[in-house]
Design brief:
182 residues; Ubiquitin-like (UB roll); DNA polymerase, domain 1; five-stranded mixed beta sheet; disordered C terminus; binds FE2/S2 (inorganic) cluster; 2Fe-2S; metal ion binding; 2Fe-2S-bd_dom_sf; iron; 2 iron, 2 sulfur cluster binding
Length: 182
Amino acid sequence: MTVEIDLTLNGEERTFEAERSDSLLDVLRKNGYTGAKRGCDTGNCGFCTVTVDGESTMSCIEPVATIDGATVETIESLGSQDDLHPVQSAFVDNAALQCGFCIPGMIMRSRDFLEENPDPDREEIRAALSDNLCRCTGYEKILDAVEDAAERMDGDTAVAADGGQPVDDVSCSGCGCGVNDE
Ligand code: FES
Ligand code: FES
């Protein structure tokens, strides 16, 4: 059965048709918002993390029936290739991504966490990201990146000061992290 859901998606009022059995991730990906990745599809990997009404949310287990009227932000709402969000810049500059599949979810959860806790210690960052898995990096560089992002978001001074690594120098396989997107 088809239903209509209204969302404020990345700042725009949108109406989507969806199957009653769809998840928020289904709705996003069917409508071109492919930054959120489908990993386990059971709420166990965090690859599909987006922000719903200000909270990091695993979109694969969020039924459409519960999100009508919600405000949703996806990785597509963060920086552009020429103007990365400080969390995206920090991930790039700390080499915190390899295959990139987990990165959109990591970045959304990191952004939401740093907005709540702008000056975390490493153990707080580790705990905040504990629901988001990564099969490639061993996590240490991700923790480095989030520590760095906290400093950059604290007035954005670090980004302005070092200019970051040129985006053209960074390879990315089109994972949706916002780096080198066409
Ligand atoms: S795809 Fe949603 S938690 Fe794994
Ligand atoms: S960079 Fe490959 S899964 Fe995290």
